[in-house]
Amino acid sequence: MEPRNNTHPLEFVLLGFSQDPDLQPVTCGLFLSMYLITFVGNLLIILAIIADASLHTPMYFFLSNLSFVDICFTSTTVPKMLVNIQTKRETISYADCITQMYFFLIFVELDNFLLAVMAYDRYVAICHPLHYTIIMNHRLCRFLVLVCWIVSVLHALLQSMMVLRMSFCTELEIPHFFCELNQVAQLACSDTFINDVVMYVALVVLATVPLSGILYSYYKIVSSIRAMSTAQGKYKAFSTCASHLSVVSLFYCTGLGVYLSSAASHSSQASATASVMYTVVTPMLNPFIYSLRNKDVKGSLKRLLVGKL
Q: Which residues have C-beta within 8 Å of that of residue 215, sequence separation ≥ 6?
C-alpha cells in the first residue's frame, strides 16, 4: 500500500453491512425504524421528567441526561448511514469522519460515566437514605454531570488529535457503518505505536474506573438490602435500582460482546454487526426499560400523552 505523502485523504469508504442491492432497502428501513423509536422514546422520557414536578429528583435528573446523550449517541452514526444507503454513496470525507469519531467518543463515554453516576445515586439512596437529600443536592448533581462532560470531551479530543497526526494509505475502506476509532487507525501507513498505546490505555482506564464504581456501588447496595429485616423493604429497595441495573447490564454486556466477538472471529464485519447492539439497540431499549419498570415514569408519560391529545 502506498502512503499519501502525509497528506490527509479526501474520503473514506464505509462498507457497512452488505453490498447486496436487494438488502439495502431492508437495512435502511430497519435502521430508520430503530432510530425513530430511539429518538421519540428518549425525547418522551425527557419531556415527561421536565413536565412532572414530582420527577425533579437527582435520579430523574440523571435519567434525563442519559436520554439526551442516547439521542445524540445514535444520531452520530445512523443518519449518515441512512443517507449513504439512499444516495448509494458509501463515502465520508476526512473531516466528517474525524468529526463523527469525535462526537461518537464523547457520547459513548458520557453513557459510561452517567451510568456510574446513577449507580452512586442509587447507592446513596439505599445505603444512606436519611442523608440522601443532603448528599445528592442540586449542586453536586450538576457538578457530577459537568465532570462527565469535561472528561468525555477531553478524551475524545485527545483521541481525535492522535488520529490527525497519522498519514493514510491509498486503501481507505472501513468495514464498518461509521468511523470507529480502531478501524480508522488500522488504515494508517505511519507508525501507530504511540497512538495504539494512548488509545488502549485511555480506553481501559475510562472503562475500568466507571465499571469499578458501578460494581462497588451495587456490592454495597446488595449488602444493605440483605441486612434489611422485612421482605417488603428489600423489594422496595431493589425496585428503585432495577431499571438502572437492567440498563447497565445491557450496555456493558453488549459492549463487551463487541470486543469478544471481534477478537474471536477476527472479522471486521462481525464487529460491525455486533456494534449495532450497543450503538443502536441499547439506546432504543433504554426508554422501554425505564418506562415499563418504573411506575412514576409510566404515570408521567400517560399524563403527558393524554394532555397532548
A: none
